[in-house]
Write a structure and sequence with these properties.
The chain is mostly helical. The chain is built from 6 helices and no strands. It folds into 2 domains: 1-35; 42-169, no CATH class. Helix 3 packs across helix 5 (105-127) and helix 4 packs across helix 6 (133-169).
Length: 170
């Protein structure tokens, strides 16, 4: 018994073929046809890492330009502010990458923080003649904290969105 395709199955197949034809029949069009959770690729992770490191290194350059003689605020306060800016850099970079993912936001945040930490170490090795392990460790820990925070905040935002949709449907 050969069963003919039902009308709805035929419609799905033709819509998928139409999409492939419109885009030009490339592999990208075939990926667009597949319905599944979006996952960031390595380029997205590297872009998030560059963004996080950009914030960190702009802050470090600003601190070096000010100089110790012109400082009005205590060094302890600047150190605390530096940690907050490092965490913000990790958070902002990971948030941008988490927006590209449909699931696994915590993993995406951690991967972005890992890429950012590795990139920060490479930048430090090339720019600073003597690597200070304390600075490297503080930047890495702060970037990871920012990545975890971004993942959890993105999960929280998705849960709030679902709650609103459930309340609206009932």
């Amino acid at each position: 018994m050969d069963a003919e395709p039902r009308e709805d199955e035929f419609k799905e197949v033709t819509e998928a073929e139409d999409t492939v034809e419109q885009v030009g029949g490339t592999e990208e069009a075939e990926r667009e046809v597949k319905k599944g959770p979006r996952e960031p690729n390595n380029t997205d992770y590297l872009a998030g890492a560059m963004l996080a490191n950009g914030i960190v290194w702009i802050w470090m350059q600003a601190l070096s330009l000010i100089g110790e003689d012109a400082l009005i605020v205590p060094k302890g306060l600047l150190a605390d502010l530096s940690f907050l800016i490092y965490i913000f850099g990790g958070y902002y970079g990971a948030t941008q990458v988490c927006k590209r993912a449909d699931t696994g936001h915590l993993i995406v945040g951690l991967k972005t923080a890992g890429y950012a930490s590795a990139m920060a170490l490479v930048i430090m090795l090339t720019m600073i003649s003597q690597l200070n392990i304390g600075i490297a460790l503080s930047i890495s820990i702060s970037l990871f904290a920012g990545g975890v925070l971004a993942g959890y905040m993105r999960i929280r935002k998705r849960l709030q969105k679902r709650r609103v949709e459930l309340e609206a449907s009932s």
